[in-house]
Structures are given as C-alpha cells and as structure tokens.
Amino acid sequence: MKIKRIVCSLMLLVIIFGQLAPSTALAETIIPTVAGDDPGVTITATNPITSEKNVEIDVTIAASAGKITEDGEVKVTIPKDIVKNKNDLINNLVIDDPFYLADPALIEDGEGNYVLNIAYDHTKYDPNNAQGNTVKVLFKAPYMNGNDSNVNYPDSVDFKADMTMGSEIISSDKTTSDVIHSVPGNPLLSKFGITSAGRDDIYGQEASILSKEDPSSNVFAIIVNYNQKNISNAQLVDTIPEGTELYDPNTYIPATGDSTIIDHFRIAKVTGRDATGIVNSWEYVTTDFADKIHLTSTGFSIDFGDLTSEDSYVVMYAQKVVGDPTPDEFGARYNQAVLMGDGDEIITSGAYMGLKEVMYDSVTLNKQVSQPVLASNSGDLVYTLTFANKKGATAVGTKLVDPLPSYVTYVETTDNSSGYLTDATYDSETNTLSYDFLKELPEGETVTVAFKAHYENDSAQSDQKIENKAYFNYSGTNIYSNIATTLLDGSAELIKLDSKTGTPLEGAIFKIVDESGQTVEENLVSDSEGKVYSGLLKPGKYAFIETQAPKGYALDTTPNSFSVESNQSTKVNLTMYNSESVEIAGTKTWVDNENSQKLRPDTITVNLYQNNIKINSVTIGENEGWKYSFDSLPKYSNDGEEYSYRVEEEKVENYKTEQDGYNFTNVLEVPTEPETPTEPETPTEPETPDSEENVTNNSKTQNEKSLPSTGSKSALFLGFAGFLILLCVMLIRLKTKNKN
C-alpha cells in the first residue's frame, strides 16, 4: 500500500507540473559556454605587467535586448601601486555612448585603490537589440626596481568591476594580473623604446608603440658599455625599420649639461653609480660627437673611438612613422643595433615597434521575423539576424547562434551574401542553428543573414506565440537579441449582427465543418461583440454553421464558407445576419361527425410562404393533435425589410376548407348520388302453339304451378305439434295419479 501511495503521489506531481508548462512556443535557454550575468560586467587586464609596460583594462558590459531599464554605474577598482600616473586613467580612457564619466570620475577608496566611476544612460540602449560594449582603461605601469628595498612592489594585483542598475549591484567581476619587477643591470649593449604610448604585445612580440601624431614621444635609447669594458675602435651601427625615419626626441633621462639635439640625437655619458654599481647620473656630451654621427639611407652609425671602463653612454633619438599605415599594415617591425670593435661585430640588441589603435567596442544583434501574425497552424517563417559592429572590430570565429523554438525547424538559408559568415550549421538534435565569422568585421560594418524555418503544430491555440531569439558570446556572456515574435491568430472570425439594426448578437452557437462535412470545432459562441472565432485550423476549406440562434432570433443554418491557406497572415473575416424570429402556428378542426363516414385523411400538409415564395411545409396528423407550427422564422431580411408570411393547406378530398388566420376548419361534404337503375331483361318470344288443346292444357298446368303459397302447410304442422304436447301432458298426469 505504501508503494502504491508513493507512485500515485509522483504521478500527481508529474501531472501538476505538466500543467504549469507555458503556452508559448519558446526556445529553450542555452547554458552559456562561459558564465556571465545578463546584464553583466566582465573585466580583463594585461597579464603579466612589467615595468613601464602599457596596461589595458577592458571593462565589458553585455546585455540582452530590453534588459537595461534604468541608469546605473560601473565602478572599476585599480591598485594605486601599479599606476605610474593617475591622470592616465582619465586622459587615456576609451569610452563612448551609452557610457560617460560620472562626477566625481576618480576617487580613492582609502584601501590603496583608485576607483574609476563610469556611468551609463539606459535610454541610449535600443531595447530591440542585444548589445555589448567595452570601455578601455589605459595607463602605464611604473618602473619597478626589484632591488629597491625602499619600495615594496606587489607580486600580483587585483582589478575589480561592479555594475549597478538603479541603486542595486547587478553584476561583479574580478581579474588578477601577475607583476614582474625589473632587475637593473649593466649590459654591454641594450636597445629599448621608451615611447609615451608604452609597450604592448603586437603579433606576439612585446613592442614599443609608436605615436603617429607625436613622433617626438617615440623615444628609443641605446645603452653602450654599462659593464665598463675596454673596446678599441668602437662603433654603433643601427638599422631603422622601413616606413620610419629619425626625429628629434623628447627628454628621457635627467642628465645635466647641454641638451642640444644634433642630427636628431642626444648622447649622455654616465657620471655616477650607486653602491651596487647601478648607473644613477649622466651628463649630455652630444656636441662632442657632432662630427661622429653619420646618417645613412637605412639608419645611422656613431663612432666612439676607444672605449675604456670609464666610458659608458646612452644614445637617444626618436622615430617618425612615414605615411598613415594602419596597425595591421605596419605590423611589428624590428629595430636592430650592432656594437662593432675594430670592424668586427661584438654584440647586437634590438627592439620591436608597432602601431596600436585602442578603440571603444560596441556591437549589437537584432532579430526580425517576416510574419508577425500566423493565422494557421502551419507555415514558413523567415528570420533575419542583423549584427552591427558600431565601434571596434569583431574577431574571426565570433559565432551567431539561434536556438529555434519547439515546432520550428530549419529549412534553408535564404540570404548570406555578405561574405563574412560561414554556411549555416544546423544541429537537428538541439534544433540549433549557427553561423561563424570567417573574417574580422570592420568598424561601422553590418552583416545580415536570413533563413527560412517551418512551423507545424496541430495542437496550437490562438493567442499563443512563437518566440525566437538569437545570441552571441560577448566577453564570456551569451547575450540575446530581442525576441522575434509571431502571434498565432485565429484562422477565421465571424461577426453576428442583427439584420434590422446591425447590433452585434451575443450567444449564437456555431460549429465548423470541413469540406467533407466532418465537424472540426463545435460549441463556438459569439461574444458580446458578436464575434465567434475559429481557432487555428489546418490549411483547407471550411464552413461556419449556426446550430443555435441567440434568444429571440431566427436560426440560420446556411453554411458560411471560407478557406485557410498555408502561411496565412490574417484571419478570414465573415459577416452573418440574424433576424428577430417570429412563429406561425395553427390548429386543424374537423367537422365530420367525428369521422362517421370514415373519409377523414390520416395527415394533411400545410405550406409556408415567405413573400409569396414557398419556403417550407409541414405534415400533421392525429399524433400532432392536428396542430402545426413553423418556429424561428426570420422577421426581417438582411436588408432590414420585414417579411410577409402566409400558410395554405393542401386540398383535402371530401372536405371544404375554411381558413381563419393560421387556423383551418375542414367541413365534410358527403355528395347525394342516385342509385343506378337495373337494366331490364330482354323478353323471350312465345312459342307457336301446336293446337288449341295443347294450349289449354299448358295454360292450366302453368296456372297450377304459378299459384302462390297460402300457408296451409304451416298450419297443419302447428296443429300436429300442439296435439303431441297435449298428449304428453295427459300422460304425465295419469302417471302421477296412479302413483298416488
């Protein structure tokens, strides 16, 4: 018994939860490949961070269509120890709509961090689009001397982002970057860039980033003989990359003396070292090398002569980018320096350089459906996905994914002509369609792809919805487009009106039959607006048939035919008029002495005429009590004209009909007919007598035979009977006397 109860309980729960299923055909939620809130914020940062390297913090805000409903802020927490100049946090910020700096833009939290306050305007979010935006925080890390005991640089730093909408935190994220300290040394030769744009990874190489707008900030330095070697006939030879040329540099080191630039160069000699031998002071000696700097078509050379342990130098110059190449066109270019001695190569050192355009990222995804209304339970839908790269660039491999809802299956791609997307990949098991980006989508470009899908659902109901949305993964969050909605509307609608006044009629009951006469819907009742709805029907031919008229109105069973087409986008509209009803009834009375002559018929027929046109008949008899009626007759035509009705009885033999309104009286008329006379027999001719005697004898004989009976034989019989009776009586008395 206990097991039975448990099983029954489980079955009941299944039934209950089954009833809780939504009525809309909605696509199943796809679990993101990378966790993320929606709306959500994610944060990433340069890792690892080295001395004087550019640091980029990407703060990404992703939201599905219609998710951002209030203004809010994104607060970015940045450790102070890793920022060389806090003004970079404001000045180098890459930001655009819907984001802007809040007031105050930058504060300190009292725990050793800067907090950058970024606000957003929710009215600048299109509620119909999935939208992803990336704000970029750029700054340079300080020089972190790992040997400096006076400063405790961290081995790692945490960056954090908190997103609020209204006053509530709706998403948070954190990332950690390792920190690599510099270990100063005294190399024989070392070349590096100290550009204002810092260093970054370009095509896998750590490169000094050049500024096309401010070439003086593109400073490169070459250290010569910091390890205090003796080199005879020392010469520095440098080959600059193609597409660049020498330019006057900004100041790099705090050297004393004359800072005059000669042929785009400043040269400083080491004048001091700390207790560990690390260089800490310099003096400009550029003028001493005025005639020793030689410019070539590919670079330059500088003659140092014989170097001793007291001769250590820093050579500084800048490089200008020629023309206006894009970062991709420029790539990562190598700049090499060679230290020669007595004409032989002793050592080489080089540095990569490149261009980088840090852009604000903003992308959107929108979805549309060709058929906002479907008035059939079967049809084709064409969906269109529009992906827009408003700012920045969209990477190769970005995937547009469309999980199709129940009862919708992929048919074919109808438009994929942009050249940016792969052919469709359709997984029938998950009913999911996807397209991948074959190449990077440039800023300002839009990609559109359209595909056909088929909907088929025999159990679909009116007012249900086919809801479909696509998504793409943006910085770890699957963000969804707007919902492309197709409303399932009824296939047909009939409105019931009063034929006289045009007033909608409530309470009429209909059924729907298909072309074979089979009932497919029944008990459909007109509402207060007189409307009755078919619901969703398969493509085919149908008819509304009224089965019950509204109270006080005449029933009209005339079929109202209509057709349902595949892909039908609007319901069929029908109009039907009902008139107030009238009843015609009457009684049949017989005047025939209660049918004494047996001439009354078993039944009679009464015919009904509408505007003098016969429209109906009824046959009645004794079973009906000789009463008839015509019910639910329309009083008015569809044009509002009142009908004229009359009845007539079909002729009844032997009776005369008298009509009083709708009542009939039949009076028997028995005809008096004379008896038909008997036709006399033909007389025979008498025979010719042979003689007079024979005539006499024959006459006598004939006379004897022809005498009538006089009753004498009867009298004789009665007398004899009386005698016998008397004799019997006398004998009985005599016998009785003798006994006595």
From TrEMBL:
Q: What is this protein called?
A: Cna B-type domain-containing protein
Q: Where are the transmembrane segments?
A: 715-734
| Top-rank taxon | Bacteria
Sorted keywords for this record are: Cell wall, Membrane, Peptidoglycan-anchor, Secreted, Signal, Transmembrane, Transmembrane helix
Locate the compositionally biased regions of type Polar residues: 694-710
Which NCBIfam families does its entry note? B_ant_repeat, LPXTG_anchor
Write the lineage as a comma-separated list: Bacteria, Bacillati, Bacillota, Bacilli, Lactobacillales
- Keyword Nucleotidyltransferase listed? The answer is no
Q: Where is the signal peptide?
A: 1-27
| Family of this protein | Belongs to the serine-aspartate repeat-containing protein (SDr) family.
Q: Which organism is it from?
A: Lactococcus formosensis
Q: Which residues form the Gram-positive cocci surface proteins LPxTG domain?
A: 707-740
Annotated stretches, region: Disordered: 670-710
State where composition is biased (Acidic residues).
Answer: 676-693
